[in-house]
């Protein structure tokens, strides 16, 4: 029970991780759509989106020993599952594989986007996250207190990052409408 209480008080809320996960999903789906050059790019975008939403809570649920009745943590909170280099490495390697038509690449890329978004949401609180070696904290507020700020920042970043795809899509729609009007 003590480990459960520790998890509740020392991390961004589960709702905040889910809300930022949807933003990560939008980023992942857009990146897959732009990087993929296969006939499965739409499927890849959907898979990336879903995987990002799942990945946004992964650093926390990967610590839980689901195979035991007690459901205790089998990895100390904010250690291996919150390691920044690991998530960034998976993100980069899976992004490089996107253009080669591997079906696993959008899934892994989306999952890594969600996991990285989770770390960014946890970073401002005093416990911090282990980006490279040892934990680093922005020490801005205690977890759960400013979740709305984290969610707004995540969605602002998502909107800014997907801007080029929206602009390209709007241009194609206008061209199509102009062609239909002739």
UniProtKB/TrEMBL annotation:
Residues 1-18 form the signal peptide. Keywords: Membrane, Signal, Transmembrane, Transmembrane helix. The chain crosses the membrane at residues 45-68, 80-98, 146-166. Coiled coil: none annotated. InterPro entries: YdjM-like. It comes from the Bacteria. This is Metal-dependent hydrolase. The lineage of its organism: Bacteria, Pseudomonadati, Pseudomonadota, Betaproteobacteria, Burkholderiales.
């Amino acid at each position: 029970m003590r480990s459960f209480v520790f998890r509740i008080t020392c991390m961004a809320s589960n709702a905040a991780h889910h809300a930022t996960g949807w933003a990560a999903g939008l980023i992942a789906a857009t990146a897959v759509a732009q990087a993929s050059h296969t006939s499965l790019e739409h499927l890849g975008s959907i898979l990336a989106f879903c995987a990002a939403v799942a990945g946004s809570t992964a650093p926390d649920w990967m610590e839980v020993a689901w195979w035991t009745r007690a459901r205790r943590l089998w990895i100390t909170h904010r250690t291996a599952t919150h390691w920044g280099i690991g998530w960034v490495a998976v993100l980069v390697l899976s992004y490089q594989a996107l253009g080669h038509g591997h079906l696993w690449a959008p899934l892994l890329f989306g999952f890594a986007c969600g996991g990285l978004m989770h770390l960014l949401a946890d970073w401002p609180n005093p416990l911090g996250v282990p980006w490279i070696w040892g934990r680093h904290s922005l020490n801005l507020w205690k977890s759960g207190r400013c979740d709305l700020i984290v969610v707004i920042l995540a969605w602002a970043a998502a909107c800014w990052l997907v801007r080029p795809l929206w602009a390209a899509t709007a241009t194609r729609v206008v061209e199509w409408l102009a062609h239909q009007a002739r």
